[in-house]
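User: what does the whole thing look like in 3D?
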Amino acid sequence: MTPAKTGASITAKTGASTPAKATDAAAGTHAESAAPRLAASGLTLAYDRRVIAEGLDVAIPDASFTVVVGPNACGKSTLLRALARVLRPTAGTVTLDGEKIASWPARKLARTLGLLPQSSVAPEGITVADLVARGRYPHQGLLRQWSREDERVVAESMEATGVAALASRGVDELSGGQRQRVWIAMALAQQTSLLLLDEPTTFLDIAHQIEVLDLCARLHAEGRTVVAVLHDLNQAARYATHLVAMRDGRIVAEGPPAEVVTADRVAEVFGLRCRVIDDPESGTPLVVPAAPAAGSGSSGSPGNVVKVTQV
Amino acid sequence: MSPPPLSRARRFAAAAVLLAAVLALSLAVGARPLGPDEVWRGLTDSGTEAYAVVHQMRLPRTLLGLVVGVALGLAGALMQSLTRNPLADPGLLGINVGASAAVVTAISFLGVTSFAGYVWFAFAGAGAVAVLLYGIGGGRAATPARLALAGAAINAALYSYVSAVQLLDTASLDRMRFWTVGSLAAAQTSTVQKVTPFVLVGVVLAVVLARPLNALAMGDDTARALGARPALVRGTGIAAVTLLCGAATAACGPVVFLGLMVPHLVRAITGPDLRFLLPYSALAAPVLMLGADVVGRVVARPGEVQVGVLTVVLGGPFFLFFVRRRKVAAL
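Assistant: Here's the predicted 3D structure for the full assembly of 642 residues, as structure tokens:
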């Protein structure tokens, strides 16, 4: 825990106005500004012998909010798990700060790169503060138990995610959106400059989805590199600064959302006919699925569309 | 969370006082009841009549109850946490019955009769089951469900073996029956001395494991993301459980229920944090163990009821009541 790192982490108030690049330099990557901190080359990913993806090359731009999208079972969560070293690739390497991620000591890695997996389980009866405090694991040891610093970071993490008022509540009693923010607070308490989130909005209603995504955007604005797997293409296009589109274990396209999200691309990746228009709120690409059985196109009267009912 | 609140420290002190009281009671109660002053003189003054009673019978028995209680309480808490299974007890993973099968084999076929002889068989049996468990349900693909299922299968197979040997070998059935029930009555100072080092190693491992197991409780991916190593933690955990259960089972036979019951009772006070759950379990289990043993000495006078029987008779209904009243925490 260098002072630089502490600066690059929690503090929600000062971070927002800081240019992302400056904070990233503080995190210690200045020397190799050309190479991205987190990258993978020639990755083959498999569960047991079932190959999910082969020959993946991907680079996560520093200080970006990278979102990975793609249809179900395209390998996007698998890629994220490999990037976080939770899954060991069958072939290829993931590098972090120029070193093979496999050679990073476990706790040092956990102080640099955080992952919020889909499969997190809250132990029954645990309080919000206790759960967030478990994010301090990589900063503690047998002889270095709970400290003032831990106390402060946990409090700041809860503050940053808006769950401070829930600190003594049981995690079981919370709503889905609150619970997800608690998990993010736990990942924040790790004080990592890279944060990977696997489908953080799944099972949340629309308002809570936006709430969580706004939080992610703020964490990104504070200087972290955020990588998230998302289901919703429109949300991905709105929040991402860098989009990675996957299909069948391959990366089909990557780049700024405005370049990646085109009608042809959506057809290629998701097999969905659609129009892409400008989001009236944010100006980002907005995917509007084509009406079913539209025949010659979508020029029909609005009345016709309304009458289409779900089968 | 963070620094334990005062009430938690106070409760810990209360539990420690309770344990001291039960220890004193265990020295005083028996076929020849001793008053407090007699117990004290029995401990310190070799000239008195009570000295023989205390030093040859009560003290080893009490110390063994303490050591075995600590071992079983910790083993139960570790196992429930390792398997994320609220019903995991030293029996569920088949480790106890592994020790049991090895000891029965030693008694029946190899003519081993002394503790010094069969303690190693108990470890070998418990260890073999642990390794087998790790081979079947462990390793990289280990999940709580696989581990528990593998344990249940091994448990069933070995239990049949133990029963078969006991049925076929009627000559040693008597000796084995005494041992299979779980009893502190035959405790000797030498047994306590032999079993304690193993339990101490188990205690040290449990201390080291508390935080990693906390990380593991949130799922393997989360644990890895926090910098814990699930396979290593599970391996160490199984080693600790093997030591604790093997030693306890070898010393006084299989005492069931304690490892299942104690962590649940304790969790109601401490919550799921193993940094508190483990030490409280280590305090509470010998209280129940010795409490049951003391009761066993007086309920059937002039005879005795074995502690292994009493933990079930007393613990069973209490546990059912407890489960009914408050939902058993799923881990």
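In plain terms: The CA atoms of residues 46 and 225 of chain B lie 60 Å apart. Chain B has a mean pLDDT of 82.
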